[in-house]
Structures are given as C-alpha cells and as structure tokens.
UniProtKB/TrEMBL annotation, chain A:
Organism: Balaenoptera musculus (Blue whale)
Annotated gene: TBC1D19
All copies of domain Rab-GAP TBC, residue ranges: 160-381
Protein name as catalogued: TBC1 domain family member 19 isoform X4
Family matches, as PROSITE patterns: TBC_RABGAP
Residues annotated as signal peptide: none
UniProtKB/TrEMBL annotation, chain B:
Name of the protein: Polyglutamylase complex subunit TTLL1
Source organism, top-level taxon: Eukaryota
Keywords (A to Z) from UniProt: ATP-binding, Cell projection, Cilium, Cytoplasm, Cytoskeleton, Ligase, Microtubule, Nucleotide-binding
Xref: InterPro entries: TTL/TTLL_fam (IPR004344)
Organism the protein comes from: Balaenoptera musculus
Pfam family name, one: TTL
Catalytic activity: (L-glutamyl)(n)-gamma-L-glutamyl-L-glutamyl-[protein] + L-glutamate + ATP = (L-glutamyl)(n+1)-gamma-L-glutamyl-L-glutamyl-[protein] + ADP + phosphate + H(+)
GO terms for biological process, alphabetical: cerebellar Purkinje cell differentiation; cilium disassembly; immune response in nasopharyngeal-associated lymphoid tissue; microtubule polymerization; mucociliary clearance; regulation of blastocyst development; sperm axoneme assembly
SUPFAM superfamilies given in the database record: Glutathione synthetase ATP-binding domain-like
Molecular function per GO: ATP binding; tubulin binding; tubulin-glutamic acid ligase activity
PROSITE patterns according to UniProt: TTL
Subunit structure: Part of the neuronal tubulin polyglutamylase complex which contains TPGS1, TPGS2, TTLL1, LRRC49 and NICN1. Interacts with PCM1, CSTPP1 and LRRC49.
Amino acid sequence: MRKAQGSWEKRILKSLNSMCTELSIPLARKRPVGEQKELLNKWNEMGTDEPVLDLSLFRPVYAPKDFLEVLINLRNPNYENGDSHSFRTHLGLIQVPLKVKDIPELKEFFVELGLTAGQLGVDDSTQVPPELFENEHVRIGQKVLSEQDSAAAQQYIRQGSPTALRAELWALILNISSQPEDILYYEQLKTNVIQHDLLVDSLIYKDVKLTASNDDYYFVFEDYLYQVLLCFSRDTSVLGHFAYSSASPPKSYIRGKLGLEEYAVFYPPNGVIPFHGFSMYVAPLCFLYHEPSKLYQIFREMYVRFFFRLHSISSHPSGIVSLCLLFETLLQTYLPQLFYHLREIGAQPLRISFKWMVRAFSGYLATDQLLLLWDRILGYNSLEILAVLAAAVFAFRAVNLMEVTSLAAAEAVLADLSTLKVMPLLQIFLFATVT
Amino acid sequence: MLSLTDKHLLSIYSVPEGTTNQGRESKQPLPQIVEVQSADTQPAAVGQAPPGSVPAWGRVSSEGTCFLVRSPRALTTPASTWTHSELPSCTSLKLCFSFRMSVQTIRNVFSVETGYRLSDDQIVNHFPNHYELTRKDLMVKNIKRYRKELEKEGSPLAEKDESGKYLYLDFVPITYMLPADYNLFVEEFRKSPSSTWIMKPCGKAQGKGIFLINKLSQIKKWSRDSKTSSFMTQSTKEAYVISLYINNPLLIGGRKFDLRLYVLVSTYRPLRCYMYKLGFCRFCTVKYTPSTSELDNMFVHLTNVAIQKHGEDYNHIHGGKWAVNNLRLYLESTRGREVTGKLFDEIHWVIVQSLKAVAPVMNNDKHCFECYGYDIIIDDKLKPWLIEVNASPSLTSSTANDRILKYNLINDTLNIAVPNGEIPDCKWNKSPPKEVLGNYEILYDEELAQGDGADRELRSRPGQSLGPRGGRSRDSGRTVLTTWK
C-alpha cells in the first residue's frame, strides 16, 4: 500500500512541477511590499478581486476520477487468489482484499442508529411530537455541553446533534477551545500568507471558483474559504498527521542544493496538495462557525482526523480503499441483481459513488442532511458510514437503476441527491432490509 | 384535481393537432414562460374574455400548441365569445379558466367606464386596488393609519416604549412622502444629520430610480419652497418616498442581502393568506460598507437582481440567491434556536400586520386573489424591516433552480386559488383542502383564528409551522391575535 501511495505521490508532484515549469511560475516567492499591503486590505474579500495570475492557465493537479484509476489498479503482489473462492467472484473494481464489515457487523457497530432509538434526522420531523424524543435529546445535549464532557458528546452525537448545539458539540469532540494562543497562531499563518505567495494558492483559488462559488448552498461563504485554505497550506503543524498516515509530504530543495537533506523543505509547508473539490471539505463548516480562526481550527482538526484518509492510499478501515471495497461488497452482497446489471451495462457502481465518498458527500447532499451525516462521522470516529450511505442511495434508487442501459443514464438517475434524507435511508438499509 | 406537474405542462407544450393527451410522453425540455404573439393565435376558452386578458392556460395557436402567457401589455384582444369546441385535445386536461392579468389590464377590468363585469366562473390574479399595499407611499400611509386606529382603540398592539416607538408595530423604517412631507422630513433629518436616507420613486420597480442621500442638498428638487418648483407644477414632480436607510443590515459572508417572500392572499375579509415556504435571500455581489464614499455604488446597497446581474461578479449559476432554509440553518447554528425562531415569527407577524392594515380599504372582490412578493431586510440586531410589497413579483427566472421554484410557485398558487382544476365558481368558500397547499403554508386565517382559538394543528416548531410568537404580551380577549391560523 505504501508503495502505491509513494508512486501516486510521485505522479502528483510531477504534474505540479510540470505545470510550474510550463507556466514559469515559481513554487514559492516572497511578495513585494506593495502586494502585501494590497492583500492585507482585501483579505476579507478575496473572492471579488481576481488574483494576479490568470486562473485559466491552471489545471487542478488531479481530480477524484484520476485517483480512482490508481485505486482500481492496486494489486497485492503477495496475494494469490487461486484458493479464495469468495474474492475471486468479486465483481467490483477494487481488487485488494481488505477486511471490511458486513451488515451484521455494521448493525452492531452502528447500534445507536437502530430502529428502536430516536434519531435527529428522523424523529424531529413535523409529524412527530417533540415530546417523544427531540425535547429530551436537546436537554441532554445541553447537559453534555455544560459538563464539557468530550467522550459523552461523542456518544451523544451518534443520535444526531440539534442545530443550535452542533457548533459547540463538534468543538468539544474535536477538542477545539479557541484559546488566545490559537487565535495568535492563526494570525501568524495569515501573516505568512501575506508575505509569501505559493503556487498552490492559485490552485486553491481555482478550486474555490470551480466548486464552492457555484454552489447554491456555499457561494455566500466564498471569502471564508480562501481565508481558511490559504492559511492551511502554510500550517506546518499539519505535518504531524503524516506520522499516522501512509502518505508523506512532498519535499522540495532550495535551489542548487538538490538532494542535500539539510536544504529540504516541505512543499507546500503543510504537505498537502489540494485537488479538485478540496475546498468542499471546508464549505459546510461555514454554516457553523463564522469566526475565521475557530473555523480554521475546526477544519484543520477534521482534516487531520478524517479527511486525509479520503485521498491517500492505505489499508486503514476508514481509508478510501476500504470504503470503496465496503461499498462494493455491500452492494454485491445485498443487491446482487442491481450490481450485476450495472456492471453489464458498463456502469460499475463505484465509478458513480466514488466522488461522493471522496468528498464525504459535501456538495451532493443538502447541507442540513450533510451535517447530520458528519455528526455520525464524529460520533463513531469512522468514515465507514460514507460507504454505507452510498450503498443505501443505490438501494433507494434501485428500481430506476434497473431500467437504465448506459453509464450516462445511471449517472443521471443519481445526479441529484439534494432531496435525500440520509438517516431514514441509512436506517432502512441497515436495519429494515430483509437480507 | 389538476396538479400542473412537469408532465402536464410538457404535454401542453407539444400537443399536436388532433391527438389526445393520454399516455404520451413529451421529450421537450420545459420552455421558459413566453410572451404570446397575439396576432397569430386563436384564443379558445369558455365564457367571455375580459378585455385585455388572456386565459392562463388555454391559449391555442394555429399549430395546435398551447402557450403559457406572461402578463400581456395592452393586448387588444377583441372580446370574442370563445366556445368550448375550439379547444382541441387540451379539453381532456380540464384546464382551469382563470385569467392572467397585468396591473395595467386589471384597471380596465374594474374601471367604471368599461362596464365590464366578471362572471361567476372567472377569477383574476389581482385585487382592484392592490396599490394600497404595493405602492410605497400608500403602503406607508395605510400602516400609519392602522397604527393610529389601534392606538385610539387602546389596543395593546399599539403599545409604545419610553422613547415613543411602537413595540410591536415598528416594522417600517421612518418614511416621508416627497414633496408633500418635505418639511416634516427636514425636521427629522436635522435630528440626526449624519444619517443616510434612501429615495425611491413611488411607482417604479426593479430598483429603478433609487438613490441614497446623506445631505439635504441632494434632494433640493423636492423642496416645496425651492425655486425650481416655479418651473414645474407640483403634479409634474415625480412622487418619491424617502426612508431612513437601514445602514446596519445583517451581513453574511460580509454581504448585504434581503429576503424575497411570496405571500398569497385569497381574501381580505376574512383575511386568509398563505406563505410560500421556499423564499430566498438576494445577495449583493459586492461587500457591504456603510462608508459614505460608496453611497453611489448600487452594487453594494441594492439587492434587486435586475441591478446585481450587471455586476462584474454576478454568477449565473446561483444568481446570488440563497434559500431561506439555508438562512434559517445558518442562524440557528450560529445564533441559536430561540433568536432564530423569534426572527421568523416576527417576519410572519410583520406580513400579517401589513395585510391587516390594508384589509379595510381593499376592495375584497370575490373574483380576486393575489400573490405578492414581500421584500424584507433583517438588520444586525435580527429585527426584520418591511421594505416593500410587490404586486407583480418577477416570475422570470435567472437560474435553473429559480425556474423550478417559480414554476412550482405558479402551480401551487393556482391550485389554491382555483380548486380542483375545475372551472372556478367565485362563490366558493375559498378554503382549499390541506393537500393542495403544496409548498404554501397557512400564514393567517382570520376565520379559523376567530373560531377555534385552541385548535393547533401546525406544530409550534421553528421552520415547520408559524407558531405563536414567544414572549410578548397579548390581550387574551382578541383571539384573532393568539393563533396563527
């Protein structure tokens, strides 16, 4: 796995470097004082002023579908599928035999989502009197917050968070507590942005302009996205997460000192090269936090705990490879007809659901539903729910999908997820489907 | 019940001559609502067409297709008698025969001169004197009158605080008519000379002719004593209203926005109105600043799409429109549930009070219903302000989502106004069954409120009902205020 990750990283860097040489733009440069002043002035409205460089020259370094191709080609050289009957019949795209949970195991893991427990996202709808579940749940949430009990919060949020308490609960679970030194740290990062211009900045601008700026839910927060992401790329504390990631940060050498370790720097400083859609990890958080340094801290923590696993190759159960395999296995085991049909018409289900999972469904679900989903990511400290939801969506639209005859038609059936209610879908798939 | 779904309209659009509508699929994309070329179309509907109107759905062209019509401008359709048989296959859809009118043509219908009388099966989409609510000066006049009346009656609604401001009825910024109230305005202006005021022409829309002032010299023209008045008579000076500019609007993402909410009124006495759940916020493309150097920059201050779409940063995908549900989620998440619920309750309150204010003077013709576009601004203290009410809210769309919204709006409006998609009878009780409301919810039903005050079907839950306002004192004797039905 690490080898695969290594070669994937090499490819990304090659792409980045060639873009750099093509456009003759340095990877990093110090800003002239005039430009620094200007940037400081328009710090709060970077969305309206065009950056100095022409953005059309830039391409995103990679898009999720490029990454999917890499994952599809992963093979374990030590593995002989000769005797393993079950895996040989795996119809999906992922060919790496990682251990994934099956439905009985998932039911146990996600026991709080069961039909006998109350859920926000199901039991707070208009038809249900709030006395039955919602009022009590809100009261417990307030108690958890007043006790500042992080573990209790994590347990509590498995049943969903009331809208008004969510911002504080997430902060509690992620151990974010906006101390003066945190605010200072953010200001320091801001100064770094002002003083130095990085090539990845243009990638960030481009990504925001291509995704969040055009999104009906998130366009309002465009300026916050720049403020968070530009600072993020300069934050060397993010390098810490590479200790438990299979990825390694790209290294760059001071001019003329190639190969000399003492002159190596990480590029970008946080070691994370943004890809197409990266800004969508931040966008939903803007509904919860309007203070930039807090928004920044929450995003950074979400990234180093969860999101990094969605775009690096590893064997971790919450890593994207496992999620893909989990999705395919669930679909093949519990909706074999559908899976077979889609495969026959050249519409491998993973090709459609991959982009949902890589973005943790951001930009595909309505925001209130997305936040309910991310509540459970935090509550269970796992991204497996993304794969389960993806399978549940296919199950929900199975009837229509059985009738399509091409990949394009299948994409069309699944193009609009904005009307879906995630909790009922998950409950039906996990707990109410006859298997 | 006729529910004009996509499928139905698509079938209307591609009806070839002589075919029936049964089980035929249309592959045409839903076209934009178009203007009818009156010359080459054959009107076809039952009953006598009121002058200057066109049937909402039943216009058939010689090619055998129907078109939806926008409000016609001075269409000179002869008032011919239309017979049922002239309608080809469309009759199987049981089209409803309401007539769509513009504000110009409605004047013709109800004017004394034409002597026109709407028959029982004809209904129209404007009230005869809607301008009592929709003209900026008359709206303010009616609200001021309403407040004074309540004060005289000793109603607790008209309660004032220590500084003389109404506690519950202060929802319109201080406004004066020009040139009539010029001197009163000057007095007020001098009390806080650093304030900004906004000048709006009474009869225009889409942000036309609006400008901001912070100096008396900028409105010299409207002074009654001004020397220039000797060159023009009072009547040729265009009527303007001048209001205190709300220079502390609630900002999101640093930008100013206003709310566009759709309210359907089926009758004024008893008042029965519905609020469309899918309102939206209109954002400016430029960051807000109260700085005086930017008073002329309309992209900072005016949220009208007609203005913003000419801005450099206008985005055609979302058009600067943000669903009200997003606003609600954002405010609940960042400010808490109580204050958000209170804000939305206040918005509903403001709308109902504005309708009650004009109800006594409205010609409550039983042939009429009207869908208003309410413009509301929220300030940074989360207080809503009523800016104006539009009688002809734009039904064209600037984005794809917008088109779906407006389409559903018209569909739901007609389902409430014309029950069952049958030929209407204006004598019906105007109480549609709950199922046809679509995306509307009952905002206020005077009959229900006066009748059964304890009956609460809608939950008292923010965002899903229009529950009672919290925390305000109310006279328990006036049941009309204690419920929101």
